Amino acid sequence: QVQLVESGGGLVQAGGSLSLSCAASGRTFTIGAMGWFRQAPGKEREFVAHITWSGGNPRYADSVKGRFIISRDNAKNTVYLQMNSLKPEDTADYYCAASRTYCSAYGCYQDNDYNYWGQGTQVTVSA
User: Fold this and answer.
1) How large is the average pLDDT for residues 67-82?
2) 49-68: per-residue pLDDT in tens?
3) Using CA atoms, how far apart are residues 127 and 123, in angstroms rounded to an integer?
4) What's the per-residue H, E or C state across the chain?
């Protein structure tokens, strides 16, 4: 099993920045890629970004491209999501997920591409 714990959510004004962290523990050697998803109130969960466990091949949803950066710290088994130029529409619960596949060929953009999920952290962007 793999355990994922997110942190770093909070309230920020539009145009501001936040950094989310996701610490992985347990059988981390089974992880191929890590992703971030988000779910806004009344909406379905959507893909935000993913990166391979080795830290390569980052991919982003069009809605966050150029504003969000996903990265990985190998030593800490932690994945980060740096969110810049935040907009009110970025308000959501953000979830970290781990996949047993590398997601490098076609990407992993769907919920069922991932095997493990964190509990989520709330991000609120005020206008």
Assistant:
1) 94
2) 999 888 888 999 999 999 99
3) 13
4) CEEEEEECCEEEECCCCEEEEEEEEECHHHCCEEEEEEECCCCCCEEEEEEECCCCCCEECCCCCCCEEEEEECCCCEEEEEECCCCHHHCEEEEEEEECCCCCCCCCCCHHHCCEECCCEEEEEEC
b/e 13-39 (16+ beta carbons within 10 angstroms → b): eeeeebebbbbbeeeeeebbbbbbbbe
Q: Distance between CA 112 and CA 56 in Å, rounded? A: 21
User: Any residues with CB less than 8 A from the CB of 3 and at least 6 apart, and which?
Assistant: 24, 25, 26, 116
